[in-house]
Every structure is written in C-alpha cells, then in structure tokens.
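Ticket #4471: structure output looks truncated?

Reporter: J.K.
Steps to reproduce: submitted the chain below (111 residues) through the standard prediction queue, then opened the result file.
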Amino acid sequence: MARKAAGETNREIAAALRIAPSCVSKWTKRARETGSLAPAQVGGYKPRTLSGDCAEWLRARIGSGPFTLRGLTAELAERGIKTHPRAVWVFVHAEGLSFKKNPAARGADAA
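Returned output as attached by the reporter:
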C-alpha cells in the first residue's frame, strides 16, 4: 500500500511484486473499505439452535429420565424447534450428558 500511496499504478506494483494487477486493486479496495488488509472471515456464522431456553429445557428433560436422540428431536419438534438428531447429539456430548440403556452400565444405583 506504500507503493500505491507513492503514486504507482496497479500494473506497476503488480509487475514489481510479480502478482496479478487485479490482486493489487482488490487490496486497495479492501484497505479503502475496511481500513485494514487483514483477511475477512471465511464462511458464515450460524448460532446454535439448541441454546438459551431450549438448552435449559433439554438439560432438564435429559435429567428427568431415559431418552433417545430421535425421541428428543421429536419432543423438540413438538415444541416448534426443528433440528436434527446429530445436533442433539452434539449438544448432549458437549454438555457431558448421557444415558446408558444397559442397567449394568449405569452402576449400583440402577437396581
């Protein structure tokens, strides 16, 4: 950008740096619009569906008794929250919550 400020053209800068002139013009545009040459975010950001009040409900529901991922997905759908069993699994896994169907795997309190 120092070369651009010194008055060199995009083609002159590109030839000196051995890059495409379009690259120089894109850098110039980025510096003008954002004030920085830092790269932009790649990809978007989508907030998790299972957060906030929904997450609180899920924690309470999981603590109340046996569940399956598909069952939780269906219960969420009844509450108007469209999601996928994989998203429910990610939530359950991230929270460190699980339910073992096998009584032997649950320990002494299963009896």
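Triage note (M.O.): checked the attachment and the full token line is present. The chain has two domains: 2-34, 53-110.
Status: closed, working as intended.
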